[in-house]
Amino acid sequence: PTDTERITPLTPANTAYTIYTSGSTGHPKGVTVTHTGLTSLITTLVERCDTGPRSRVVQLASPSFDASILELLMAIGNGGTLVQPSPGQLAGDDLARTLADRRITHAFIPPSLLATLPAEAARTLTELSSLIVGAEACSPHLVPLWAPNRRMANLYGPTEATITTLSHVLTRAHTPIGAPNNNTRVHVLDENLRQAPTGIPGELYVAGRGLARGYLNRSGLTSERFVADPFGEPGERMYRTGDLVRWNQDGELEYLGRTDDQVKIRGFRIEPGEIQAALTQLPGIAQAVVIAREDQPGDTRLVAYVVPETDHSVSTAEVRDHLRQQLPDYMVPAAIVALDRMPVTPNGKTDRGALPAPVYTAAGYGRGARTPQEQILTAAFAEILGLPNIAADDNFFDLGGHS
């Protein structure tokens, strides 16, 4: 229909596209994103990711993932070229080869996928002038490897706020999630919607022109997540991200994890993101993921998965000792599993469902029981731990035991 035939005129606040996201609930919901949000994002990409007419942007993300729209805007939204690689999931040497052969200048690569590239690619991919990471926390190990001689930017944001809300150009191993994009405001609030002081964790709320209209045909869920903004003009809204963050002393936002990632184990409330942060600060560890597993009904345990840096090996005993110096005992994982690489989903995020169950084994050395009392105790502990036997000087907690 023509503009005169429309019931209401078209405006920048109309829906530009609807994309479905499962979020943390597993139930798909359509997010309706406006034209206003897209124009604000394009100007941010020009400023912070240095996109322009000469950009050659690789399309790695699936069309079902809103990062594909980010890639589209980086290229076509600024007069550049969008490069479609050969079909199939790219990673490791294949991805490095594609970036080189297609002379890619700009790429959005989630950290888990970036970690699969050979280390020498950071030096040999000379035409890759702008590298964007996001969708998950970036390991500090990746920044000094990839940031030199190119612009490396971290983008953060939910689909409900037009793909990305915050951005930060990375120059050192410390990886805050950044400053607000153009026409965007953020608040760090406690459970009573009061501003959280510097250094105190709170939930991140997003306001401004980038907010989506809401969820398609789901008014109840829209009103639950898009709430009135007490700090804005009358009628303005803000989006509850469900992400736990804090302001640091430099005025930057640091990501701590999901509010719904909080786990309660034996009476203690635990943020896995804090343990992950402690792990990635240890020498020799490139990536870390911490999850709560219930491999036996009623027995929930923290398990850490770590990927060592190139040419490094991981001693789980040493890692555990380091964590004990930084964290209370109840936050030290029951098991630490070393992997060659993290499993990733087709969208390049860590595939937590593919992480293997830990195998709890006795140390394999140590003295045997010498007295009847020690025999009774070691047999009882072995039965509790589900092990065939343990030594008298094995550590009950290191073998997965708890109170």
Kindly summarize this structure in a few lines.
The chain has ten helices and 20 strands. The protein is of the alpha+beta class and 403 residues long. Keywords: Phosphopantetheine, Phosphoprotein.
What does this structure look like?
This protein has 403 residues and is an alpha+beta fold. It is built from ten helices and 20 strands. The chain folds into two domains: 3-258, Rossmann fold, CATH 3.40.50.12780; 263-399, ANL, C-terminal domain (GMP Synthetase, Chain A, domain 3, 2-Layer Sandwich). The protein has helices spanning 35-49, 67-75, 92-101, 111-114, 121-124, 142-146, 219-225, 272-280, 316-326, 372-385, and strands at 15-21, 29-34, 56-58, 81-83, 106-108, 130-134, 151-156, 166-169, 179-180, 184-189, 202-208, 214-215, 226-228, 237-247, 253-258, 263-265, 268-270, 285-296, 299-308, 335-338. Strands 5-6-7-8-9 form a five-stranded mixed beta sheet, covered by helices on one side. Strands 10, 11, 13, 14 and 15 form a five-stranded antiparallel beta sheet that branches. Strands 1-2-12 form a three-stranded antiparallel beta sheet. Keywords: Phosphopantetheine, Phosphoprotein. One of its GO terms (cellular component) is cytoplasm. This is Amino acid adenylation domain-containing protein.
Task: Describe the secondary structure blueprint for this structure.
Elements: E1 15-21, E2 29-34, H1 35-49, E3 56-58, H2 67-75, E4 81-83, H3 92-101, E5 106-108, H4 111-114, H5 121-124, E6 130-134, H6 142-146, E7 151-156, E8 166-169, E9 179-180, E10 184-189, E11 202-208, E12 214-215, H7 219-225, E13 226-228, E14 237-247, E15 253-258, E16 263-265, E17 268-270, H8 272-280, E18 285-296, E19 299-308, H9 316-326, E20 335-338, H10 372-385
Parallel strand pairs: 3-4, 5-6, 6-7, 19-20
Antiparallel strand pairs: 1-2, 2-12, 7-8, 8-9, 10-11, 11-14, 13-14, 14-15, 16-17, 18-19
